Amino acid sequence: MSTAIEGITMLTKDALQSLALALDRILNGATVVNEPLPKRTNGFVLMVFPFGDENGQCHYVSNGASREDIIRLFTEQLRQLKAQGEKQEDIQ
């Protein structure tokens, strides 16, 4: 699983990895803890950030997406969010 953990506490790192494993199993079909995951059909990125942080610090874990895939995902999501925001402004 991919992680960006510079400066993250071990407790948070362990929690993120545990959450990612559980989420991967829920989203991709393994129902027993020791059962191997079937071929993944769903990817995810779980992001954790401190409220009030003005530096944009964020830690993430994914179920196998590369850094390049995540950048591409975020770029497209930002484009869509901006477009939706512009549509909302046009309505008001």
Task: Show the helix and strand layout.
Blueprint: E1 3-4, H1 10-28, E2 45-48, E3 59-62, H2 67-91
Antiparallel strand pairs: 1-3, 2-3
Overview of the structural elements:
The protein has two helices and three strands. The protein has 92 residues and is mostly helical. It has one domain (3-91). It has a three-stranded antiparallel beta sheet, with helices on one face. The longest helix has 25 residues, at 67-91. The chain is extended, with a radius of gyration of 16 Å. The termini are far apart. 8% of the residues are buried. The mean pLDDT is 80.
Integer-rounded radius of gyration: 16 Å
Total beta strands: 3
H/E element order = EHEEH
Number of helical segments with 4 or more residues: 2
For the record, the count of structural domains works out to: 1
Low-confidence segments: none
Q: Shape from CA axes? A: extended
Distance between the termini: 43 Å
What do the pLDDT scores average to? 80
Question: Which range best describes the helical content: under 10%, 10-25%, 25-40%, 40-55%, 55-70% or over 70%?
Answer: 40-55%
Widest beta sheet: strand line-up: 1-3-2
**Beta-strand content bin:** 5-15%
Largest sheet: 3 strands, antiparallel
Q: In terms of structural class, how would the helical and strand content be classed?
A: mainly alpha
